[in-house]
Amino acid sequence: MFSRLREDLASVRERDPAARSTFEVLTCYPGVHALAFHRLAHAAWQRKWFWLGRFTSNVSRFLTGIEIHPGAVIGRRVFIDHGMGVVIGETAEIGDDCTIYQAVTLGGTSLYRGTKRHPTLGKGVVVGAGAKVLGGFTVGDGAKIGSNAVVVKPVPAGATAVGNPARIIDAERDAAREQKAEQMGFTAYGVTRDLDDPVSKALHGLLDHAVETDRRLQTIIAKLETAGIKLEDVAEPADAFDASRLSKMVD
Q: Is 150 exposed, middle or buried (0-12, 13-18, 19+ CB in 10 A)?
């Protein structure tokens, strides 16, 4: 138990730049306290001391604001940052080196007992603040869940899911962001400053298409007039199409 605690303290120091000392992490980080309580509750649950496990879990929730069902399986060096409002369900499984931020829910969508109702997180998964991962599917190793995403389907290893419902970011078009994330060592909150929302990318694509269509029409009109063909019926647009202004609104 103490070796696991030492690993937890070291992982927090590594991933949280606000942590100034190991003593501060030990005494002031509710995520560390919640994991320590969970180990006790989970040990009781495995011995079929169900009431004691749930009671220990309730004490932990009262003290830390983090609710972890005693039946959940949590790996090594998991970091619950801030943690207030985190809910982890009974059949959830969390792999080693995962990072979970505040208000995250690892919940279920099934009411049948004895089934796998809650998600499984692979190794090194980052779940951003406010994200909801709902269902008995798997989030692959190294995946990232953006803040406030609602994930209801499996996420491939190394992928990034954002939005509601969550969409998978195209890995080929996201190479620059991944390279930056590797330099940083880890992506806080599952997002970076330059991460594009899929809806934003779609709107930008439509704007680019409209600009290109307008340019081609103007070129055709200019060539026709050069050839001596007058287009008297073509009226000037009432409002100029300002693509740059619209693009800023989308951003």
A: middle
